[in-house]
Design goal:
Length: about 55
């Protein structure tokens, strides 16, 4: 189940769906954008820190 969730989180459509769900739940656009920016920052840091499979370390 954990692998499935992480695979879905790598897909842009999942992020779009989460944003739409947040708006439907009553969040305003600014809140959704702020959370998206924080998420993008976190994943950017992870992308920098995590090595690729099969690559030289």
């Amino acid at each position: 189940m954990k692998k499935w969730i992480f695979k879905r989180l790598r897909e842009p459509s999942s992020w779009a769906g989460l944003g739409a769900l947040a708006l439907a739940a009553g969040a305003n656009v600014e809140q959704v954008q702020a959370v998206g920016q924080i998420g993008a920052g976190i994943f950017a840091l992870l992308a920098i820190g995590i090595g690729e499979r099969g690559g030289a370390a």
